[in-house]
Write a structure and sequence with these properties.
Structural class: alpha+beta
Number of strands: 2
Strand order of the largest sheet: 1-2
Number of helices: 3
Largest sheet: 2 strands, antiparallel
Shape: extended
Order of helices and strands: EEHHH
Distance between the termini: 50 Å
Strand content: 5-15%
Helix content: 10-25%
Length: 109
């Protein structure tokens, strides 16, 4: 399956749009509105069976999943280095020049 099917909201309702993968999909802010479950749905979810799939059930080989199948490798995990304090410029009439000189030192301008 190399396509995606999307229901796009329009003024007249919904349009069904299909596109070949890879595809870029943009969304509106309305996608973030949560839908809260009703009590009936919560109770039904408690009784629902949780299915577990193995690699073989999905038609994959063991070397296609997990760290063996990953295209990236984590080299290290840690906190980023502490940031240095910024420079405070007091404007006594030459604040703009101080900022320009500071940026020139950093070779930004």
């Amino acid at each position: 399956m190399k396509k995606i099917t999307i229901k796009r909201q329009s003024e007249s309702g919904y349009d069904v749009v299909e596109a070949e993968l890879p595809a870029l999909v943009a969304i509106t802010s309305g996608i973030n509105e949560p839908r809260y479950p009703q009590l009936k749905g919560i109770m039904a979810a408690k009784k629902k069976e949780i299915k577990r799939y193995t690699v073989a059930d999905l038609g994959l080989r063991a070397d296609e999943v997990g760290s063996a199948g990953a295209h990236e490798k984590v080299l290290s995990i840690g906190r980023p280095p502490a940031r240095q304090a910024g420079k405070i410029v007091t404007d006594d009439g030459d604040g703009g020049k101080q900022i320009a000189d500071f940026l020139a030192e950093l070779k930004v301008v």
